[in-house]
Design goal:
- This protein is of the alpha/beta class.
- The chain has helices at residues 19-31, 66-69, 72-76, 92-102, 120-129, 143-151, and strands at 42-47, 50-56, 111-116, 133-138, 155-157.
- The mean pLDDT is 93.
């Protein structure tokens, strides 16, 4: 005689995050590694619901971080979204692209999940890397970046 198995249902129903929520939460977690004193940004490159690479904003490998030596942009009073070259850090999107490259991973046709809208420099890199879509948590004061992404037909959205 076969024994009947009874499955108890949980007392509360747990809802799973959507894929957007899942990957944006990961980008938020990655941002916690940031060493920037002004803005903590995290990025996650995803293809077919699989993580390809992550990145956060901080100084190049082996160089002192702003957490250790201070922020030149802050000292000079440079507003957010301007004079990106006067920063020792790489942006989260740049670090995610570099990490994928270092490990021989193609990011063509992937989705970028990021805590902050990319700047124009990152937008140009993302266009050339073949990113097909960008999902953000918050905006950034860079209209040129949005214009370039629109011209390149890269969808950018905030869920």
């Amino acid at each position: 005689m076969k024994k009947k198995v009874t499955v108890n249902k949980p007392a509360t129903v747990r809802t799973r995050p959507t894929w957007d929520e899942y990957f944006l939460e990961m980008a938020t977690l990655v941002a916690k590694r940031s060493t920037c004193l002004r803005r903590n940004v995290g990025a996650v490159l995803v293809k077919d619901k699989r993580i390809l690479a992550t990145g956060y904003n901080g100084a190049p490998s082996g160089l002192p971080h702003c957490l250790e030596i201070g922020c030149l942009r802050q000292q000079l009073g440079i507003p957010s979204g301007e004079r990106h070259e006067l920063c020792r850090a790489l942006h989260a999107e740049q670090n995610a692209l570099i990490q994928a490259s270092l490990h021989g991973i193609s990011v063509k046709d992937s989705i970028l999940y990021t805590t902050t809208q990319p700047c124009v420099i990152c937008a140009k890199m993302l266009i050339n890397a073949g990113i097909k879509e960008i999902v953000i948590i918050e905006g950034y004061p860079d209209g040129m970046a949005l214009d370039f992404l629109k011209q390149a037909k890269i969808k950018i959205r905030k869920p």
